[in-house]
Amino acid sequence: MTKILSVLNHKGGTAKTTTTLNVGAALSILGYRVLLVDLDPQANLSQSLGVEEIMETISMVFERKLEILPIRVINKQIHLVPSSLDLSAVEPGLYSNINSYFLLKSLIAKVKDSYDWILIDCPPSLGIFSQNALIASDGVLITVQAQFLALKGLDTVYNLIETIKDRLNPDLGIQGLVVTQTNHTKLSKEILLALRGNYQDKVYKTTIRQNVAIAEASINRQDIFSYSPESNGAIDYMNLAKEILL
Ligand SMILES: Nc1ncnc2c1ncn2[C@@H]1O[C@H](COP(=O)(O)OP(=O)(O)O)[C@@H](O)[C@H]1O
Ligand SMILES: [Mg+2]
What is the rounded distance in angstroms from the CA atom of residue 51 to the CA atom of residue 44? Predict the structure, then answer.
C-alpha cells in the first residue's frame, strides 16, 4: 500500500527539502517507486532536481487550472510534482474556500496507486499548503535542526497535527522526528536529549550529521547518493530510510 508522508516544520532551514530529496532517493535505491511533491513556493526541491522554469507546476492545481498533478519523470523510480514562486500569489485567495484544503488529497488519490511512497516537502509555515499536505498524508516526518531554539514552536506543530487528525484526517499519525545537522557540540547533544525526553521513541535513532557533501549535492542538482555515495550524509540518509521502513 502507498504511504504518504508530509515533511514538516514551521521553521526554514531544518532540512525539510534535503530530507524529502534524500529519503526519497534512498527509498528509490531500495527499490520503491517514489513521488516527491514540492509544496514550497521557494521551489528548492524542484531546483535540487534540476527542474526549473517550467510551465506546469503545483501552482496551477491551486489556481484550478489543472485537474491532475503535473508530474515530471526524474528517473525510472523518482517522479516530481514541481513548484514555483506563483504558488505564494495564489495562497491568500484559498483560505475562504473549504474545498481548497482538500485539493492535494483529491489529486494524489488519482495517482497514488502508481507509487509506494509519496513525500511532500512543506513550506516553512503552517498555512494552507502544509494543511493540504497533512490532510493528504498518512504520517508526518518532522525535521528538527540541532540548533538554539530548535524546540520552540514544536508544540504548535503538534497541535496542528492533532487538530487535523481529530477533524479532517483520522488516519494521520506522527511518523517520527529526525534531528538534522548534528555536530559534536554540547548544544547539539542537549537538543537530542531534550527531544528524546519530550517525544520518546518518536525520535529516530538515526540523526543526520552536518556534512558539507549534503549542501554541495543540492547545489550540484543531485541527491547525496549520486553526488557522494560514501559520505556521512549518504550513510545517515540511508539509515534513516531503513528506520522509516521498520
Ligand atoms: N546535514 C546537513 N549538513 C550540511 N548542510 C545541510 C544539512 N542538511 C541541510 N543542509 C543545508 O542547510 C540548508 C537548509 O536545508 P533545507 O533542506 O533547504 O531546509 P528547509 O527545507 O527546512 O528550509 C541547505 O542549504 C542545505 O543544503
Ligand atoms: Mg525547504
Answer: 10
